[in-house]
Write a structure and sequence with these properties.
alpha/beta; about 30% strand; about 180 residues; single chain; globular; seven-stranded mixed beta sheet; 6 helices; about 20% helix; 7 strands
């Protein structure tokens, strides 16, 4: 797999908020793709569970210190993380609403959710264009409107880097996190 320079670097959104994840906690990098965030988070000292359905991309993560690579089709079969909890969950460029409740249930208390993906309007720029994979305006905010959760940052709109797209971004805390923004 060949990645452009921008696709191999961690997302600026993840860079901005990764330090809020409780120390010594395990982090889930969901639909990790090339593993750019798993590598970055492991470099910060976190133990990272990097999961993706593509065994070829996971191969590059094998043997990395503090990274456990797991192949799983997150959209089929049993949810692989039932009963587990993570101090941080990072998701970029991925949306599968049917597993959202299970995903949010995996965030420890205290814990940090860092999520960034495409929203309605992105179809002007290419994939994803299917509304099933595009967030509605402010949809992420609805995910965390529940007791014990707090929105630390939220953005939505058009971006130009790493490519033109329409995205939504959320950083939310579950439980009491001393925000060090």
């Amino acid at each position: 797999m060949t990645l452009s320079l921008d696709e191999s670097r961690p997302s600026p959104w993840v860079l901005r908020f990764a330090g809020l994840i409780p120390e010594r906690g395990e982090v889930l990098d969901l639909a990790c793709g090339s593993g750019r965030h798993a590598r970055f988070l492991a470099g910060l000292g976190y133990h990272v569970e990097a999961v993706d359905r593509n065994p070829l991309v996971l191969r590059s993560l094998q043997g990395l210190c503090r990274v456990s690579a797991r192949q799983s089709d997150l959209e089929a079969g049993v949810w692989p993380y039932g009963g587990r909890s993570f101090a941080g969950i990072v998701v970029t460029n991925y949306l599968f609403r049917a597993r959202l409740a299970e995903l949010l249930a995996c965030l420890a208390d205290p814990g940090i959710l860092i999520y960034e993906t495409f929203m309605v309007g992105n179809e002007r720029y290419g994939k994803p264009a299917n509304p099933e994979f595009l967030l509605r305006s402010q949809e992420m905010l609805g995910w965390v409107q529940r007791p014990g959760w707090r929105v630390l940052a939220f953005e939505e709109g058009q971006v130009k880097v790493p490519r033109a797209a329409v995205v939504q971004r959320l950083c939310a805390a579950r439980g009491s996190i001393g925000a060090r923004l």
